[in-house]
């Protein structure tokens, strides 16, 4: 029987995993500057955590979730996105308490799961880097989160970016717009796709997000939510735009953007790249927005929130299409060459000592001849070789060679064990 990885998943092999570590390291470093701390939540949650928050008519809930009943007949779901699990943890662990500094800032890095057609940059098991901030309704935080997302992408060398911006307003704005949208769409009901017909009266905003070409033509003439904002919602959005201007961050207003999850309100955004890997077509690599009300849906107190998510696979596609995108250090400091079986224990001790002193070290495990070992050291681009044969072992010495220059000296094994850095100088 031939065993293969499940469709829509990938093996991240050595050589590629370093690229993932490079991305994660940069993200962690930037989030630390903005005072975000990591949270790790379970890969599976109760089904209701996502069905309640993502929206019963969303594609995620109706088509894409990996959900099943476990042996205790509990309905569980592999997480399709990161925010709902973080919110559940925020509520369960009472991270809204008076002793917690506001805003509460956190980030996550990990795998998500959606049953959809696999394609370039889109998998059934995929990985997200995301941030969430709770407890502050100030539009200044909206702008800081957007600015942080842009800074993250720019830290990878992505400079050709476009920020698309919209608002979904507050509850009053949304209710007025919902009715206006229903009134507009009802005359077209017979022409809508089956999914949009289902959503028309349940959640008409979802029709705006339809990928059906016929639906897209219909919604081109739909009313704009910007015409239905309350004074408070309009003030919030105007402040966001003003602060983005103050920071010199350019943006485009896309009044038909609604995002794929039902919990968003007020500010929503997408950051796009026209990388050559997308044939120059603007493609979203990072997106997010404000979700006031989501904490209450999962049993917590009234708490505003905002965040974003970034797809690691899609970011990798972009970076792999660029030259010198990855600054990956995988240097080998010392390759220990052992000549003769009697040197086996000593070469092992030397390699372990070098590692404890902070150096990367490797050695031969196949009892190969010296020529083959030196060839491996060269192939691995070792900075030094440390060679010990039976004579050197008897004399308590080793031969240290600087590979770049070919310079070679005899050194004491005691000095190697005590302070190799001094010898390397």
Order of the strands making up the biggest sheet: 1-5-6-11-10-9-7-8
Distance between the termini: 55 Å
Number of domains: 2
The averaged pLDDT comes out at 93
Q: What is the overall silhouette?
A: elongated
Instruction: Provide the β-strand percentage band.
Output: 15-25%
Q: Could you tell me the radius of gyration in angstroms?
A: 28 Å
In the CATH hierarchy, what is the architecture of the largest domain at level 2?
A: 2-Layer Sandwich
Counting H and I runs of at least 4 residues, what is the number of helices? 16
Classification by helices and strands: alpha+beta
Main beta sheet, described? Answer: 8 strands, mixed
The CATH H-level superfamily of the largest domain is Bira Bifunctional Protein, Domain 2
Features:
single chain, 425 residues, alpha+beta, BirA Bifunctional Protein, domain 2, Rossmann fold, eight-stranded mixed β-sheet, five-stranded mixed β-sheet, 16 strands
Describe this structure in words.
This protein is an alpha+beta fold and 425 residues long. Helix 1 (17-33) runs antiparallel to helix 5 (139-155) and helix 5 packs parallel to helix 10. The chain starts with 16 loop residues before the first helix and ends with a helix. It contains 16 helices and 16 strands. The protein folds into 2 domains: 17-170 and 230-320, 2-Layer Sandwich (BirA Bifunctional Protein, domain 2), CATH 3.30.930; 334-424, Anticodon-binding domain (Rossmann fold). Strand 3 (66-69) and strand 4 form a beta hairpin.
How is the secondary structure organized here?
Layout: H1 17-33, E1 37-38, E2 44-46, H2 47-54, H3 59-64, E3 66-69, E4 75-78, H4 83-92, E5 104-113, E6 125-134, H5 139-155, E7 161-167, H6 171-185, H7 194-199, H8 205-208, H9 213-219, H10 231-246, E8 252-253, E9 265-273, E10 283-290, H11 294-297, E11 305-311, H12 312-320, E12 334-338, H13 344-356, E13 361-363, H14 370-379, E14 384-388, H15 390-395, E15 397-402, E16 408-412, H16 413-424
Parallel strand pairs: 1-5, 7-8, 12-13, 12-14
Antiparallel strand pairs: 2-4, 3-4, 5-6, 6-11, 7-9, 9-10, 10-11, 14-15, 15-16
Helix pairs in contact: 1-5, 5-10
